[in-house]
Design brief:
Elements: E1 16-21, H1 37-49, E2 55-60, E3 72-75, H2 78-82, E4 88-90, H3 96-107, H4 118-121
Parallel strand pairs: 1-2
Antiparallel strand pairs: 1-3, 3-4
Length: about 130
């Protein structure tokens, strides 16, 4: 607990987190009309709910690399970070195979604990510089 009496999850318990961009381009049905963007979010949230706290999902506004939409960022768990894992940005994350691969990687531990699927490594993108973000 903090001095305010509000419980705080211990750092060691921080799960692998999938951050889903839903800004100006990512998740935009006008830009990608053939993609079921809502299904992707539903699938990720269902997996997080069933993970017993080992996976978290968050939505965020524009992450910046719009040319690579849809973008998801796989953030390591606390244990993964201690093992050298760093946030990994995945571009063009729109189809079922990509979503399932990201979920399987996160379930196996994510960055720092498990190797990413080779097919997803081909989709890794560099995060924008802090000045390049919107």
């Amino acid at each position: 607990m903090t001095h305010t009496g509000v419980p705080v999850r211990p750092y060691a318990a921080r799960p692998c987190t999938v951050v889903v961009c839903r800004g100006c381009c990512c998740g935009n049905p006008r830009k990608y009309p053939g993609v079921d963007h809502a299904w992707q979010v539903d699938r990720l949230e269902a997996a997080a709910a069933a993970s017993d706290g080992r996976l978290a999902v968050r939505m965020t506004d524009c992450l910046g690399p719009c040319d690579h939409a849809n973008v998801v960022v796989v953030q390591p768990s606390a244990e993964g970070r201690r093992n050298g894992g760093r946030a990994t940005w995945v571009g063009w994350a729109m189809d079922d195979d990509c979503t399932n691969d990201v979920l399987a990687w996160a379930a196996a531990g994510g960055p720092g604990l498990a190797d990413p699927p080779a097919t997803r490594a081909l989709q890794f993108v560099q995060p924008p510089s802090p000045r390049g973000r919107r």
